[in-house]
Amino acid sequence: MANSIVFQDSASQLKTAIYGYDSSSSSYKSVSVSSSGALDVKVGTIAKVNILGTVTKVSTIGVLGTVSKVDALGTLGTVTKVSALGVLGTVTKVSALGTLGKVNLLGTVSKVDALGTLGTVTKVSSIGTLGTVAKVSTLGTLGKVNLLGTVSKVDALGTLGTVTKVSSIGILGTVTKVSTLGTLGKVNLLGTVSKVDALGTLGTVTKVSSIGTLGTVIKVSTLGTLGKVNLLGTVSQVDALGTLGTVTKVSSIGTLGTVTKVSTLGTLAKVNILGTAQICGYNGGTVQGIKVDTTGQLMVNVNDRKFVEIYETVDSVGNVMKYGTVIDTSKFQDTSWYIKNVTSSNVVPVTVQVSVAPTHGATYVETNEKVSLEDNTPKIITADYYFHYTRLQLKASTATHSQSVQIWFNGRY
User: Fold this and answer.
1) Bridge partners of 354?
2) Helix (H) or strand (E) run with residue 395 in it
3) CATH H-level, domain 307-412: superfamily
4) Can you say how many angstroms the Cα of residue 117 is from the centroid of all Cα atoms in its chain?
5) The DUF6385 domain covers which part of the protein (predicted)?
6) Apex CA 25: angle with CA 19 and CA 26, to 5°?
7) Do the Cβ atoms of 202 and 239 come closer than 8 Å?
8) How many CB atoms lie within 10 A of CB 92?
9) What is the pTM of this model?
């Protein structure tokens, strides 16, 4: 029995070790096991995992390539970058996520503390609490968010379901539809909103470019500039409104406080209470406010009322009737004529009489307002018959000596 070794209890006494080659030190080292005998394995890079069942805890992952499906993930510490995720079921908590490229379907996320850049998300069913989001490029449908902290910028948002509260939004680009929005704190710049069904309380809005249809708004504290609104449903209360551009139609307004300026207002159906509105008038050059006294009565300045003067000389007045210029007297409150015979010699009496007509083509009718110029002393005629058109007719007592008569018409607004 040469070269033979005999063990009394071979199964219990035989011991061996497994060695692996370490290329970095060019030596063989024993493979480690845990206290229970399980093999300790350290993996550097995992290129692809088809199905990953349940993972209790993963501390750190450098780069994770493509994961087809993850059923459930307990706690995920820090992930620098994830290229693509097919279906991600339920995530309890993610502490920090640098860049998340594309997610086809994201089920339920209980909490995300901080999210750097989120590329394209087709649909998110529900988010419990979303802390700070630096930028979202495109978001298709966002179902329900209990609390949304601060969003620096959203380029485009398809459909936003129900939002209980949004603290602050820096720049919000284009929103297609918002079903229900509870409280929106502050928005620096809101681009274009196609439709808002219901809005609870809107704090301060510096500027809104355009709104397609705005359903019901409970209260707006301060609104700086509102560009254009096609249809505005019901507004319960507006405290202060800076400049309102063009409004096609407003169904109903409960209480409207102070309005500084409204450029164009098509149809305003009903206003229960209108606070302060300044009435202005246009004088042909500028728009000026209309004044009232302490009791609210309209103040009219009668000292600076406007006069219009028309001057002419009618020559060759004989015993055949001659006529002065036809004047449209419909726009004047008071009308009068200053008449003087300016013939230098052979002055004869001249009768001057007012005649009126309702139209240019109608026959002029003589009135009782007339004077007789016996010499070069001027006379005054004041009309008591107010028709659209008025003219003077002149006739001398003889044809032997023709006369010259000067006429000054004065019309007062």
Assistant:
1) 392
2) strand 389-396
3) Mitogen Ypm (2.60.120.510)
4) 29
5) 328-412
6) 65
7) no
8) 13
9) 0.33
